[in-house]
Design goal:
homodimer; 6-stranded antiparallel β-sheet; Rossmann fold; Dna Ligase, domain 1; 700 residues; 4 domains; 20% strand
């Protein structure tokens, strides 16, 4: 962590004295509301309202400026108009304050003038050793015990707890706080990061890694600045503490919103998705799902497996739960005969002792407890999902008490999950006892499945980035000295040389200019050849590819035909060079490619190839450099993976060779940032090795 | 509708006198709870408790039996033990009662003995002209005005309203009632159908079609008895009143639950999904989604299009809403410059007037109203989604009032949707004013998108089932007289004859027994041929197919090689007949097939074909007989559809010929129930016509 950052973050995290510059008694203003919340939060430290026009605010002695304060605050919260902020920060620095949270809006989010103001703000802070949260944020909430404080707009202060929240949107942050409070989820800290002009998401993650007692970290993000650094800290931290993120701006309209919101630079969603996945971050599709995951993971972080026993007092809800579990990749196995017999002795004759265990509507609280213990003790059960539906007589609190008692005797890695479909929801006692509870089986199943997946993943050894043996310096020389077309595409000869330097084999091919040269190439190669335009164009769209040529005569004719087609298509300049290649008629047509995402960097893609890539849409994407795990996962999650491994009696193809190409390409683009784009399509995966039939590479 | 059913359904729907057999004063029993709910519901008609042991129940004069009642009830609710139910039904019939709801459990859901009792129950009712709802149900709720009654276990009686609910699970029904009440959704009627021994889902749908003022119909189903009849009534009714269904038992574990629950016969989910789609039923993935759809559709059923304007007082929620809209297939267009200018004049300088319109946190209720009117009046906007986030000063009720005023001036087919992310949710006034409101933008967007899709679909003309010109009688003769293998597969010659009789062309082929005959066939056909085992086996799995044979010598060798392979694979019986066929090397390899689903009947499938059908997993399924719309939709929703219509410069293929095959196959299996299974794979779609390279047909 940067020098001087840790003491400042201590100030943001556990201040003993907080000054609010602009504090007022009027709760209809932002400053007044925030100050009222701070006072009402029961903060046991010193509160210092700063207001030159008043001697007291809400009965607390006020000061005209920071310098007049009897003590140096650990945290200054600034609520004055934008044009007065820089002066306040300067004064804070002069007074020895290290941590300033700027609530005020009117900075980078309002255009160039605001951006300039923000730059001056940061410069002022840097000069004086002040660290900033914000500007354009809704404040900070945190601390423990006597030190618990709420310096935000949120009228709701959730109970303290293990969920730590960082939000790039103030409104979303406040909505999460309210929703967390409503479902009894404790919040350890909340930081509204606003424009993140200084202290960043990555800074906070690093701090929380060292200093916090977080059970789960929740992120609402509109951008991911410093993606490489984010990847490192999230990978490390996320193995111990699950990180759940909502990344907004998935779509064009969403990004339009984000651009005008916190001045976030947003790339496409594919890259973000890959980055979050590689970082081990659980990406939630909505705030509700994020809170479901927080509920689940704040209760249980260690799971023995995916086998769920469902216990219910209503048949229909049990079926819905079984459907939802299986739809989310969980298993709902039949219970062992001995277990079924125990249940049979315990329950009404109309009850069902399969899985779901339907105790029927007359089920008592005691039966809930007994059945939960019995199925939870079975060696084939990793989690018990207890459904409580609108009761006839039995009360929810009694069922909750029985569940809490059962929780105490179940093994730690057997998850116990409640689903309370009655109007009042789950009794509040459950969460405190480590029993995550939900109001629908669908949400419960999804959260449970994703929590288990997180646990499975963190138990895997970390991946390593292999270093394929090739001469990177030689590859760099080829890229830098090559001629290229106007748009940066390298010519065919350079592409072949570059792939060769990387140790990636292409098919036998020869560049020709005339029908006669094509004849000779066909004769020399023997067998079937392909002839195509050598220029970096979308060849098949303009009739620039001829396949299945088996005679010298046809080879010459093909060159003439392609020439005509290119001229017809308005591409006469492309009509002077042709590539004659061996035609590959076996193996599987795949694609390997690279694109640079403005947000997350080089994206490597692998998938089904050929002309119909977009139609098949069977691709996997990761950010380079790729680890061995990344490559394994990319290949194995393709729908087409079975076609590579010996499908229905066919010979297995050389997946290892495909993996090797991915590692070489990954190394190439990670080492040579001048490579903007690579398109190996098709690359045939053969029984032995691979064969690249067409390759395009673009330089920036 | 069946004779006598309508008066009985009037009795279930709007009784003036209700008898409860088994009524007690003890609210911890089922009968006592139901009777208390009936009394508490304020029902203005006559309530008749039947209990031989008491002269009054809850202060109401009780009768020893039905015959002692001073008036004949329109509805009798039976809560006595299972073994006493049949007598009560007999008495009811003798007393002239037409409608009996049997709450009691202990019938088909508890095994063979219960099933026998249920059969006797139905027989008793039929003999006496009594119609039954149940048994094994939680009761009925409905009526209007003074006639509003709650004869269920539900302590919650939601306000009257346009949502009509039928549930095959009592517990789910009660959960829906509670959830509907919590979100202010009015329920016009609720029928817990239980085991549906007599009155069925289809009966109720037909009744509601004629008699009800339903705005939306909600179904919780575990089975679909009478699928053909369900299809017809749902198609008809669903064009006027949207039908939303949760069909449980999607998965193996879910079906295990369903089998032991309401004695439902459950088939696979693919067939159910196809049937519901063809019926025009909106299938919800959860109870929550069903209620979201009910909320949306009870407010708005006519939509002008998919373009949404988003209005928010918080940037982040606006971005989440934009993401959610686009993810659900809605559009979030930029607003016209003139509109943006109007908004700019109205809003704070920091506000964003793109779409989402971010009025920032200081937005007033008046600004909400003004902006909603302005964007809602724009011709490019079909719906306005108004987000209200945790406010600083502005109150939710004031925003709601402004929305209600705006609703009054907006065109009827411009939808107005509220999203209240604050703790207290949406003010109750909104729904009454026809403004559907939600607590998250994701749920709002999904409901809006699916409601619009329903409206788009019902505006389309109804499909028709074409009758391809072929001789069905001739086809039937071929099927019935054909020899077949043990498992019912027809031999190659019969298959060819049957396809020919249906007017479906196969490729040129010849059945041979020896290498010499294969030689001759290759010579006669010329060009490239395929040779394969003629038996109905998975040929390619056992080396039973040889392709690309261009000489007579190779043809003979292929027959010998296949013989050896079949013997090696333990299939010597299949090694005596071989098919020599023209090899098709152009067009797109597709599959057309038929399977019979035990629940919904013949399922026709079309998709990408070849050996990798399962891997590509690009198929569409519908229940036969197929309408023209069905076939169009099947073909056009395939991921591969672009490959059929002239992809990247390739010639367009003969989609009309593929459609024609689908209609012929559909007609064939609809007319000849003896055909159990058809597998045309591959069927090549060519530039002109199609060519079936392999066909298997199985008879029951």
């Amino acid at each position: 962590m940067e020098k001087g950052l840790r003491p400042a973050l201590d100030g943001f995290s556990s201040p003993r004295a907080i000054a609010v510059v602009g504090a007022s008694s009027d709760p209809t203003t932002i400053a007044g509301l925030l100050f009222a919340n701070l006072v009402d939060s029961g903060f046991g430290g010193v509160v210092l309202p700063i207001n030159p026009h008043h001697t007291e605010v809400r009965g607390i002695r006020a000061y005209a400026d920071l310098a007049s304060c009897p003590t140096t605050p650990d945290l200054v919260v600034v609520c004055v108009p934008a044009d007065a902020v820089i002066d306040v920060v300067a004064q804070a620095g002069d007074f020895g304050v290290g941590a300033v949270c700027v609530i005020s809006a009117g900075f980078a989010e309002v255009g160039p003038q605001g951006a300039a103001r923000q730059a001056r703000l940061v410069a002022t802070a840097r000069e004086r050793g002040v660290r900033l949260v914000g500007p354009n944020c809704t404040g900070i909430l945190g601390g423990v015990g006597e030190g618990r404080f709420n310096a935000t707009f949120s009228r709701t202060l959730p109970a303290a707890g293990g969920a730590f929240l960082l939000s790039q949107s103030g409104a979303v942050g406040l909505a999460v706080l309210e929703a967390a409070d409503a479902r009894g989820l404790g919040i350890g800290a909340f930081v509204s990061i606003g424009n993140a002009a200084d202290v960043s998401t990555n800074d906070l993650l690093r701090y929380w890694e060292d200093e916090s007692a977080a059970d789960v970290i929740l992120l609402y993000l509109e951008s991911i600045p410093g993606p490489a650094s984010f990847l490192r800290v999230a990978q490390r931290l996320g193995r111990r503490v699950p990180i759940v993120a909502v990344k907004a701006g998935r779509t064009v309209a969403g990004r339009r919103g984000a651009a005008s919101h916190t001045a976030a630079l947003s790339g496409g969603d594919v890259g973000v998705d890959a980055l979050l996945h590689q970082a081990g971050v659980i990406r939630a599709g909505s705030i509700d799902e994020m809170l479901d995951l927080a509920t689940m993971l704040s209760c249980t972080r260690r799971y023995s497996g995916r086998r769920v026993a469902i216990v219910t007092n209503g048949g229909g809800p049990g079926i819905l739960a079984a459907d939802a579990c299986e739809a989310n990749g969980l298993e709902v196995p039949e219970l062992a005969a001995s277990t079924a017999a125990q249940l049979r002795a315990l329950l009404a004759p109309e009850a069902s002792v399969a899985n779901p265990v339907d105790m029927i509507a007359s089920a008592t609280a005691a039966q809930y407890g007994q059945v939960t213990r019995i199925v939870g003790a079975e060696s084939d059960v990793d989690a018990v999902m207890v459904l409580f539906n609108t009761p006839l007589i039995t009360r929810a609190v009694e069922v909750a008490d029985e569940m809490i008692a059962a929780r105490a005797v179940l093994a730690d890695d057997v998850a116990l999950v409640g689903v309370f479909m009655n109007r009042d929801g789950a009794p509040a006692t459950l969460h405190a006892a480590g029993i995550a509870s939900f109001t629908s089986p669908e949400n419960a199943s999804r959260a449970l499945a994703r929590a288990i997946a997180w646990d499975e993943r963190r138990r895997r050894p970390e991946g390593t980035i292999p270093r394929p043996a090739f001469d990177v310096a030689q590859a760099r020389r080829i890229v830098n000295t090559a001629a290229s077309t106007g748009e940066g595409w390298l010519d065919t000869v350079t592409v072949a040389a570059l792939l060769d330097a990387c140790g990636i084999a292409s098919v036998r091919s020869r560049l020709v200019s005339t029908p006669e040269e094509a004849e000779q190439a066909q004769i020399d190669f023997g067998g079937t050849v392909v002839i195509k335009a050598a220029a970096a164009i979308h060849k098949s769209d303009v009739g620039g590819v001829r396949t299945g040529i088996t005679t010298a005569l046809d080879a010459a004719a093909a060159v003439r035909a392609i020439r005509l087609a290119l001229v017809d298509a308005g591409l006469p300049d492309a009509a002077d060079k042709f590539l004659v290649q061996e035609q590959i008629s076996s193996g599987l047509e795949m694609i390997v490619g690279v694109n640079r995402d403005p947000l997350v960097g080089p994206l490597v893609v692998v998938g089904r190839g050929g002309t119909a890539v977009e139609v098949l849409n069977d691709v996997a994407v990761r950010v380079a450099p790729l680890t061995d795990h990344d490559v394994d996962e990319m290949v194995e999650t393709l729908r087409s993976y079975p076609l590579l491994t010996g499908y229905r009696g066919a010979a297995a193809l050389d997946v290892a060779a495909l993996r090797d190409v991915l590692h070489r390409i990954s190394t190439l683009v990670a080492e040579i940032p001048e490579i903007a784009e690579i398109d190996l399509n098709p690359i045939f995966v053969l029984e032995h090795g691979v064969a690249i039939a067409d390759a395009r590479i673009r330089r920036t």
